[in-house]
Amino acid sequence: MQFITIGVCFCGRRGTLVDGRCGFCDDMLAAAPAPRPMTVSRAIDLLLAELVAEDIAAPLSARFTLATVCADLCRLANEEIPAAVAEALDGPAHALVYRERYQEPA
Ligand SMILES: [Zn+2]
């Protein structure tokens, strides 16, 4: 229930008050709308844009492990990576391959 009165708000404005606040103060105190969760399709769009930016040719037909895709989608959605996915990323299937830089024989 709201109380509508005529008077002076604590900010000094005179006029119609809702629960003792003018419209300006009421707007300032109103809670910001809750952020909408990111949709799966939006996260995939962002991931595709990243892959294209990294010069991955035809990313939609490229092969990635589910763990890497899942981790990227979680990162883009600001969500925590599930423990099983993090564990899989630490596994040997996802170990980085280091190669020595090729040098022409002297
Ligand atoms: Zn006010």
Strand order of the largest sheet: 1-2
Beta-strand share of residues: 5-15%
Main sheet attributes: strand count, strand direction, barrel closure: 2 strands, antiparallel
From the spread of the alpha carbons, the general shape counts as: elongated
* Helix segment tally: 4
Low-confidence stretches: none
- The H-and-E topology, N to C, reads as EEHHHH
Distance between the termini: 87 Å
Q: Count structural domains.
A: 2
* Structure summary, number of beta strands: 2
Overall radius of gyration:
27 Å
- Mean pLDDT metric: 88
> By helix and strand content, what is the structural category?
alpha+beta
- Helix coverage percent: 25-40%
Bound molecules: zinc ion
Give a topology summary.
Blueprint: E1 4-8, E2 14-18, H1 23-29, H2 40-53, H3 66-76, H4 83-89
Antiparallel strand pairs: 1-2
Bound molecules: zinc ion.
Zinc ion (ZN) binds at residues 9, 11, 13, 21-22, 24-25.
Description:
- Helix content is 37%, strand content 9%.
- It has helices at residues 23-29, 40-53, 66-76, 83-89, and strands at 4-8, 14-18.
- A two-stranded antiparallel sheet has the order 1-2.
- The protein starts with a strand and ends in a 17-residue tail after the last helix.
- The chain has four helices and two strands.
- With 106 residues, it is of the alpha+beta class.
- It folds into two domains: 1-30, no CATH class; 40-94, no CATH class.
- Zinc ion binds at residues 9, 11, 13, 21-22, 24-25.
- Residues 9, 11, 13, 21-22, 24-25 line the site of zinc ion.
Compact overview of the structure:
The chain is an alpha+beta fold.
